[in-house]
């Protein structure tokens, strides 16, 4: 689950954001872009220098019940940091995963709503737009597992013979193995059960926040849940497809990518970022990752690196965005 960042609409420092909306709204948006088919995901693009052709691309994937806009602030900072080199121009593609954000309104993203299909949506987006394959994929929480599935599917040529593996995969505070009741506090499950128990429309955001508080949820979580509402006549409804999101969370719990980490494809670095104060990591998982990161390769396979983000809980892009930038940016610059 990802937490909403409130951003100003004015874009400073000459940063440029393009928003792809539903097809019938393209004509009114100030940044018109070539139309996409109904089957491809909604996304936003950010570049530090919009008039300069991009040389590298990074996909940025949000977590459960989040959206692309959660990552605007961090992505702007990252694009700006990487623009110091005159020979490189990075494009950040912030994706709304299926059932989330503007992608929740798109027809054609059919079930099953699992991580395999969520990653396949990314492949379909690249193919339908005729883009080069992304150099980097950054995924937070559930998005981290979607990123790992994407890399695995690219390695298997599931998206076509011309597919190219990313050079770097960033998995931000996402445990790579199965999530069981033994290694979960059950908060996400409680939130989803609560949302499923509510009617499809509620009187107001204030009503929802108060209802969540009465059920014992924290003020910050209750307010964040409230930001996921949108107007529906005189009432409010969800800005995501709740049933589809529940199915994706179940797939997130069931899927394990330890085999990918133990045998990373040649040319790929999988960088795991563990938040220092996150409650999602047990000692056995941390030790297993450290052992994989310490292995000396012979060049025939990719590698795993592990990074600890200090002074941060699970919401890495909110709790310590500067520290996260200091971890990510140098490695992306090394690709230029």
Automatic annotation (TrEMBL):
A Pfam short name: Abhydrolase_6
Keyword list, A-Z: Hydrolase
Recorded coiled-coil stretches: none
Domain AB hydrolase-1 positions: 60-325
Entries under InterPro entries matching the protein: AB_hydrolase_1, AB_hydrolase_fold, Serine_prot/Carboxylest_S33
GO terms assigned for molecular function: hydrolase activity
Family, as annotated: Belongs to the peptidase S33 family.
Name of the protein described by the UniProt record: AB hydrolase-1 domain-containing protein
